[in-house]
Structures are given as C-alpha cells and as structure tokens.
Amino acid sequence: MARKIALLTLIACLGIAAPAAAEIGRVKSSVGPVQIQRGSTQLPVRPGLKLEQGDYIVTGKNGRLGIAFIDDTRFAVGPNSKVRLSRFGYDRTRQTGEFVTEVDRGSLGVVSGKIAKSKQDAMKVRTPTSMLGVRGTKFVVDVK
Known about the structure:
Helix content is 15%, strand content 51%. The protein has 144 residues and is mainly beta. Strands 1, 2, 3, 4, 5, 6, 7, 8, 9, 10, 11 and 12 form a twelve-stranded mixed β-sheet that branches. The radius of gyration is 18 Å and the shape is globular.
C-alpha cells in the first residue's frame, strides 16, 4: 500500500513539474493575412487565440494584429512584420516578471503593462541592430 501511495505521489509531482505550455496572451483583433507559427505548426488566427512563449507572429502586406498579454501589456503588430515572443514569465501575485520580444522586420506598437513597470530592464525589445529596455511607457518600433 505504501508503494502505491509513493508511486501515485511521484506521478502527481511529475505532472506538476512538467505542465503544458502556458498562455501568455490572446489575440484581440486580426485583419488581413496573419499567421502564428508555433514550432512547425501554423495556427489559424482568430480573436481569442491563446499565445505562448516562443510563438512567431507574421503579418502580410495588409495584415495587422492586436494582442493583450496577461500582465496588461498591449501589442499592435503592423503590416509586413515578423515578431517573436521570445521569453515571457509573469508572477501574478508579485506582479513581476520578464518579457523579451524580437522584431525581425515591420512595426510593433506597445503599451507596456505590469512587467515593464516592475523593475528596470524587465521588458526588452530586440531588433537586428539594437535592444530597447522598457520601463512603463508607450512606444513604436519600426524595423526596415
């Protein structure tokens, strides 16, 4: 009996230690050609689609995408853009975390949320030529 309990406890702990990929935000609006690439899969984009760390956002010539993240950060991704949600970690209790986004091309409008306001350099935006540290602000990144 003790072995069964120990085995069930171990199985439960393993399940907790390796959770499924976590939602970091959701698509709020989508116009024109937009793709979300998750690994080798392209997801159909629609309002309410859950986004995860590592997702790529790719918009076409007339594509635009609005995103709301769980820390209240807002993104507006413009036409002909490729943006990666590289790292995202957020502690809702302490309202702190880390958020790194990579803009390979195109435009990204940001209204930062709780992560950026929690500490210096908690939110960063990388481009092919620079890195921007964000602390509680609104801004636009345009990469040609």
